[in-house]
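Box 3.1. Reading complex inputs
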Amino acid sequence: MSEQNPQTDPPLLQVKGLETHFPIRKGLLRRQVGSVKAVDGVTFDIPRGKTLGLVGESGCGKTTVGRSLLRLVEPTGGEVLFDNHAVRKENARSLRSLRRRMQIVFQDPYGSLNPRMKIRSILEEGLILHRLGERSARLEQMEQALERTGLSPAVLERYPHEFSGGQRQRIAIARALVLKPEFLVLDEPVSALDVSIQAQVINLLKELKQELGLTYLFISHDLSVVEYLADNVAVMYLGQIVESAEAGQLCQQPLHPYTLALFSAVPSVEVKNRRQRIVLAGDVPSPSRPPAGCRFHPRCPLAETVCREVEPPQVDLAGHRFHCHVASRELERCGGDAAKTSVVMQAAITAATSDSTEPHSAVSQRMSLDHQ
Amino acid sequence: MAAPLLEIKDLVTVFHTSDGRLPAVDGVSLSIERGQTLGLVGESGCGKSVTAMSTLRLVSSPGRIESGSIMFTTEGESIDLVTTPEKQLRQVRGGRIGMIFQEPMTSLNPVFTIGNQIAEAVQLHRKVSRSEARSRALEMLHLVRLADPEQRLDAYPHQLSGGMRQRVMIAIALACEPDLIIADEPTTALDVTIQAQILELLDDLRSRLGTAILLITHDLGVVAETCDDVAVMYAGRIVEQASAVELFSRPLHPYTIGLLQARPNVDARDSGPLETIPGMVPPPQDFPSGCRFHPRCSHAREPQCNVEPPSLREVSPGHFVRCHFAEEINS
């Protein structure tokens, strides 16, 4: 996101202030009484050939971002530029031709393939819809897509129930590839798979990206998968991006307390150095009534008065962007040294979470705040 | 030495289906000491959940425990959970052994308040009045650190979040002060920050109450962070067993090594593709001959591996491996 070379093309995908609010209707007249702000002002770019990893917990809006980009749900505000086409302004016909270039792979390979259709019909549907090629040309394209995903053309005459989870996900990827897209939204594509199968699909996605020059938006709750696949990572919380940076930078020097907690919560197999785990109190609040100020403050161990009142502005440190009052103050104190600031933040949070000698009351206090 | 709290010996659980006799669990032996956490890891279909269900004899038809023994020892008294009469077993289930299932959404009854559901567990096993059971329920909600326990007592499951429901499940499991908790993927449906809360809670309760935990999971990371001992299952059998420190620092079975290497992380990013285990877990109707892992194993050698089933041997003190060539792989 950061290293935009001015000589190259503009980013393939530019998202500015994207908002997707779902109305809450009540009563006989279905009057709107509020809205669920699933996505509330999200901005990012994805340069051609790069992968942006979007991480966050359930309900943070990451899936809605993916769907809004393709207008599978209608965004309510903001701008989406795909290869300089304003996706939100396209009419039905031109949107269809754009969607050929932007495809999506869903999380659940059991739910996303129609059990009554043969693999042939599943793959062919898109080609027919977009009027691409004659029967024989279509067959060739389908066979190519299957081969790319490591399946034999013989699967065309079979039904989804005959395949395992990993194979189904390959079929779902083949269905996306058959239209020769440039951009893929991968919505938790490996979450439903076992570890050994997960690695196979991850390798496949990486290979495809290199061979076909694809651009990915990789949505996942699994940090380790995102770190491995993505060039840049954005962390979402309650409909907003709280921190984003180049993948290595974000993993080694996270600055936002939520990112720090998220990283420390990922179980590691290194038994010897069991890290000090940061355990956040409470659950994610409802996106229909997001907390005032910084949205993370009810769960943040470092929250101060300013956090409860003022929404933190974005700080951009050479492409490493974050929204946090405390981190930006510490960054200033450390003379703009992200590495040092990250260590300071980590220490402060560890101290703040292990300090509460009476965890019970502290926890319940914060949790009750969440649910008010 | 006193008998361990739970000792499973050569457990065989089979399913009789139209595909024939399917041994989902095929000669599993495990033991858990008081206050310890044992992790049982494996991928879907390896038989880890069936092992857990067999322990409480909850496997339903067409499944059947065919042989083996499950000795459960409390207060100097041992009973075999495989042969003990149903009536006595009911005292053990939910009483001496608590169970936590993966899906807190479906394992709680949607039409009863959570206070009712915890009190029900207490009243089934203790001679207490309704009001005593209710106050015990409240006490349990405090113990599992649910926010606003007084109000939540009269809440229905749908009013709670996933993490809160799992806390309620733990409260039910702990209500009768069991000696053992069987937790089948207790955090799989939860987000990482909530998972961290629940794991911390389980560990805290174990150290305070001395409850032993059999933790069943597919996540090696969860095991590494919470368990004292680990058993890795593949195709109905235990393929490696050791203390957590030993297993993760010196894994010996090719399957365990493969699982560990298949985990993506940022350090592996620039070192080419992830190591994978080719193929997939075989279903019970086509378990391969010899070593069940040999078709997927890069160390497999004929004629040993495809003919001779390896036994679970002690390669170093306390470290058991089911592989013909464990020593070579290690060196």
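In summary: Chain B touches chain A through 47 residues (CB under 8 Å).
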